[in-house]
Design a protein that fits this description.
single chain, alpha/beta, Rossmann fold, N-(1-d-carboxylethyl)-l-norvaline Dehydrogenase, domain 2, 2 domains, 3-stranded mixed beta sheet, 11 strands, 43% helix, disordered N terminus, disordered C terminus, NAD, oxidoreductase, 3-hydroxyisobutyrate dehydrogenase-like beta-hydroxyacid dehydrogenase, NAD binding, 6PGD_dom2
């Protein structure tokens, strides 16, 4: 299989960029009963895909996975069996879950030189849980139609910790019968998996809107705290005080705390993910003629961070990109040079 869907711990290609939203009171994952246990082929074991595959196996499904990175396969053993190729993982599976990073990677998995399309049957459920955008998912589903009639669009939100608890939000779209066939897997991975549309692509559309909000909110948090820093304010106090008022948002709370700490090497959601996802947002907006000036500004900011070598740092590094921490005061009230 082409190396263009390699995943690795240092470059979490499938990691959702709106990571670590508050956990729900989800019940522990339980094993399915009898006939609900599925043979699952799994492709992509990055930061999100790995824990998602493991929790699916722990729920009683038989999961066989492929990833280009041997360490990713070792990380989910013994719960998840390793396959030597994507085709081997998919062969004979009731369902195939694909958790890669981009539309081109998805097309390579399905139709590349050693793609899986030819080993699928008319009854195989293909469930794409990555964020690849509406255009890519619709192209993949149309091209795959001669091989399998079942296709589910199911991008995720929630972050790594919740992925390992089976506590994700999954935005599901597809035909009723296809979604019903995938429901045992959704129940293993998600505490909330609403059907948001009957058409493949609607799940991606929901995720694009989600990423617009997340990407703009992170950028706004970075800009606000950088401004506070430049004015000589204690940014830890700014974060605490404003977080108790109308300016609070999840991203200001979550990413803002990382900005205050300045630990941008502790990567929970890489900046490069938003380079990709804000591109998908602006592509989707362009296709329907919708102005998206805030999304465009946020995309330019993330692209600038990538160009300045920050792409693999935590996305909270936008604070530093905007000059935060290089002037004024930090969270302990001391100047940066102190």
């Amino acid at each position: 299989m082409s190396s263009d869907f390699t995943t690795s711990p240092s470059h979490p290609t499938d990691q959702t960029a709106d990571a670590t939203v508050p956990a729900s009171d989800a019940a522990p994952v339980t094993a399915p009963t009898g006939g609900d246990a599925l043979n699952v082929g799994w492709i992509g074991l990055g930061a999100m895909g790995g824990p998602m595959a493991r929790v699916t196996a722990q729920a009683g499904h038989r999961v066989t996975a492929f990833d280009m990175n041997p360490a990713s396969l070792e990380a989910v053993a013994p719960d998840v069996a390793a396959a030597p190729s994507a085709r081997d993982a998919a062969a004979g599976a009731d369902a195939v879950v694909i958790m890669v990073a981009t539309g081109p990677q998805l097309m390579s998995v399905l139709f590349g030189e050693t793609g899986i399309a030819d080993v699928l049957t008319r009854d195989t459920v293909v469930m794409v849980m990555a964020t690849v955008g509406p255009a890519a998912i619709e192209e993949a589903a149309a091209k795959l139609a001669p091989h399998t009639a079942r296709f589910v669009d199911a991008p995720v939100s929630g972050g790594v910790a919740r992925a390992g608890l089976g506590d994700l939000l999954v935005m599901v779209s597809g035909a009723d019968g296809d979604v019903a066939a995938a429901r045992p897997l959704l129940d293993a991975m998600a505490s909330n998996a609403p059907v948001v549309g009957s058409k493949v692509g609607d799940g991606q559309r929901f995720k694009v809107v989600n990423q617009l909000l997340c990407g703009v909110h992170i950028a706004a948090a970075g800009e606000a705290l950088a401004l506070a820093d430049s004015m000589g304010l204690d940014i830890a106090q700014v974060h605490e005080v404003l977080g108790a008022g109308a300016a609070q948002s999840f991203m200001f709370g979550d990413r803002g705390s990382r900005m205050v700490a300045g630990a941008f090497d502790d990567v929970r959601s890489a900046l490069d993910i938003f380079v990709k996802d804000m591109g998908l947002v602006n592509e989707a907006a362009g296709l329907v003629g919708q102005e998206a000036p805030l999304a465009g500004a946020a995309q330019a900011l993330y692209q600038r961070g990538h160009d300045e070598g920050m792409g693999r740092l935590d996305d909270s590094v936008v604070f530093r990109l905007l000059g935060g921490g290089t002037r004024g005061t930090r969270g302990d009230g001391a100047s940066p040079s102190a």
